[in-house]
Input
Amino acid sequence: MKNFLLATDLAIETDCAFDRAIKLATSLKAKLHILHVCPPYPHASNKTQKFSLKQATEDTIQKYLDDSIEAKNLQTSITIIESGEAFIEIINHAEKVKAELIIMGMHGKSKLRDMFIGTTIERVIRKGIKPVLMVKDKPLKDYRNIVVGTDFSAGSKHALHVALELAPKGIFHLLHCYDIPDTYIGDKIKQYAGDVVAKSQNDRMESFVNDNCNALKKFSIEPQNFRHKTVQGQVYTCLSQEVISTESELIAIGTHGRAGLMFYKLGGCAHAILANPPCDVLVAKEL
Output
């Protein structure tokens, strides 16, 4: 990866995203593009006032970079856009600078409007094509333990590959969660059906790992640093428990990019994890 885009609104909550973006760009020797989309200025009645506010915003970002020891040798660019629709400007700017990853900070849904049309992050994921990293926690180190949730789709394959690029020295925990349907035809037959389903899911996992072995070799991932398993249970619960048990700093998931009945939602797993993330979240859409 050579280009990252940090989309920031300069809120206190997004400081973690700023720090993570600097750390990733420094570690991977990438250029960091920083974008801020200004809200409308109700009291800025002339061009001079607007220019002054825009310059003040750029100065704030530059000061943050100047105060960061890690950013001293980092190649950066700063772009301030006035009064645009945030998610549209982020998607367009990512294309313009050829960003391979969009980095954003986590926000709570504090407005009623957000409950119905989703957060900016959700819309960037749903409408755009770039992988998005939502940063929840202040970074103390590079990503070391990463949980990758897979349903064996193209989206989860892409999420795995992006995670490998972001943390080539990490320990990866590939997890697939599945349910066993109710049969109501007797305990013995139900147990047999459960064993059949479990074996089928394990076989699919082995096949998925074999299909992605070239990606593991590309980043020189040692066998002991790539662990995989299948578990029975609800996806969000199982992934969250895996994050806790492995002390992971990042969870990576794929999304199919198909809208559900509720047009503003990403659908099941991705929406639940973004709404209540156990750690930082990487979401990649199928290519």
About this structure: Confidence is low (pLDDT under 50) at residues 110-117, 258-267. The longest strand covers residues 31-38. The radius of gyration is 21 Å. Residues 183 and 191 are 10 Å apart (CA to CA).
